[in-house]
Design a protein that fits this description.
This protein has 177 residues and is mostly beta strands. It has strands at 7-10, 20-23, 26-29, 33-35, 42-44, 56-64, 68-74, 80-87, 108-117, 120-124, 131-134, 145-146, 151-153, 160-162.
Length: 177
């Protein structure tokens, strides 16, 4: 299973498509999916499931804007089963100016289903057990390490970033993310 931002392979082996992007000579996944049989392209995976109020999901941030983010809930097979909105008002119990201060595209998050309204799904991460489980540097895409006060630091380039992290950042259910 590949998540957005993960390295797929060199450009001479893997084909660029709507599910990938090229940076330098390397190809990266732009969607949740897996390599095809030949290992030359990423095939997007999306199955619909029905998530209900109060359910806890692990997902990936697909879109971020100032006032909301779209999170794709990942099922046990690593497939985006359904996506929904996380409004900036449902990120913390205090004031948050912009969603970009809490989440970034490609971050792995744990969220709770707040409600389903007119077919749309809404999440919350406003409690300590919810939030980012794994974050990636916005400059070099390396996993970030947790520092003080939810500040994250890139071990490769040294960039410091802020996220709304879950209390078990990078150690979800005993798995070292």
């Amino acid at each position: 299973m590949l998540l957005p931002g993960e390295h797929v392979g060199p450009g001479e082996v893997v084909s660029e498509s709507s599910t990938t992007y090229v940076m330098g000579d390397e190809v990266y996944s732009s969607s949740v999916g897996e390599l095809d049989k030949d290992g030359t392209k990423v095939v997007a995976k999306k199955n619909k499931s029905m998530l209900g109020n109060g359910m806890v999901v692990v997902g990936i941030v697909l879109i971020e804007a100032d006032t909301y983010a779209v999170i794709g809930a990942i099922d046990g097979k690593g497939v985006v089963s359904e996506d929904g909105k996380l409004l900036v008002s449902n990120v913390s119990q205090g004031y948050l100016k912009s969603m970009r201060d809490a989440l970034r595209i490609g971050d792995i998050v744990r969220a709770k289903v707040l409600k389903r309204e007119s077919g749309s799904l809404y999440f919350t991460v406003s409690y300590p057990e919810y939030g980012v489980l794994k974050a990636f540097c916005t400059s070099c895409r390396e996993p970030l390490e947790l520092g003080a006060k939810e500040m994250l630091k890139c071990p490769s380039c040294g960039k410091v970033e802020r996220r709304k992290v879950a209390k078990d950042y990078r150690s979800y259910e005993g798995i070292n993310l």
